[in-house]
Specification:
Layout (H helix, E strand, L loop, with lengths): L1 H16 L2 H11 L8 H29 L2 H14 L6 H27 L2 H13 L8 H28 L3 H13 L3 H4 L2
Length: 192
C-alpha cells in the first residue's frame, strides 16, 4: 500500500508537470501495483495517450509542410481540429494547405485547357500559375502548357503563312508554307 501511495503521488507529480518521460516510467512501474480503476492512474493514462497523439499530429504536420503533401496536410489539420489541438505548426500548415490547394486548382485548369486545346482558357491559367510561383522548372503541367502554346502558335503562323502566300499568288511561297505546315503535323488541313 505504501508503494502504491508513492506511485500515485509520482503519477500526480508527472501529470501536473506534463513530464511525459517521467509519466511513462511511472506508468510502467504502476502496472499491476496501482488498481486499474484508480482515478489518478486513469487520468495519467489519458494524458499520456493524448500527448502521444498530439506529438504524432505535430510531427505529421511538420512532415507534410516540409514535403508539400496536400492530402496529409488536410488529414492532419482535420485531425488537430477534431482533437481541439492547436500546435504551433498549425498556422503554417494551414497556409501551406491553402497554397497547395490553389496550385492544385491551377494545375487542373491547365490540364483541362490543354486537353481541349483551348488557348483562351490556357492563357489565363498560365497567368494564374505564374502568380502562384508555378513555372516550367517546378511544375510539369506548366511546362507542358507552354510547350502546347508554342506548338499552337507555330501552327497559327504556318496557317497564316499559307493564307498570305495564297493571297499573294506566290507558288513558291505556297510550297514553302505547306512544307512548314507538314513539319508541324498539320498537313491534312493544308494539302486539300
Amino acid at each position: 500500500i505504501e508503494k502504491e501511495a508513492g506511485l500515485i503521488e509520482s503519477l500526480k507529480a508527472a501529470v501536473a508537470a506534463r513530464d511525459m518521460e517521467k509519466l511513462d516510467t511511472v506508468l510502467h512501474e504502476a502496472d499491476g501495483i496501482v488498481k486499474e480503476d484508480n482515478e489518478v492512474l486513469v487520468q495519467a493514462h489519458t494524458m499520456f495517450h493524448r500527448y502521444a497523439e498530439e506529438k504524432e499530429v505535430t510531427l505529421s504536420l511538420e512532415t507534410a509542410v516540409h514535403e508539400s503533401d496536400l492530402p496529409h496536410l488536410t488529414a492532419f489539420i482535420n485531425k488537430a481540429a477534431e482533437m481541439g489541438f492547436e500546435p504551433p505548426i498549425l498556422a503554417e500548415a494551414k497556409e501551406a494547405q491553402a497554397k497547395l490547394q490553389k496550385q492544385f486548382e491551377i494545375k487542373k485548369s491547365l490540364l483541362a485547357a490543354m486537353d481541349a486545346r483551348d488557348m483562351e482558357a490556357l492563357e489565363p491559367a498560365l497567368e494564374k500559375a505564374k502568380a502562384a510561383d508555378l513555372n516550367a522548372g517546378n511544375c510539369e503541367e506548366v511546362a507542358k502548357a507552354l510547350e502546347l502554346k508554342g506548338q499552337v502558335d507555330k501552327e497559327k503562323a504556318a496557317v497564316a503563312a499559307i493564307t498570305s502566300a495564297v493571297e499573294s499568288r506566290s507558288l513558291d511561297g505556297i510550297k514553302a508554307a505547306v512544307a512548314e505546315a507538314k513539319k508541324l503535323g498539320i498537313s491534312e488541313d493544308v494539302s486539300s
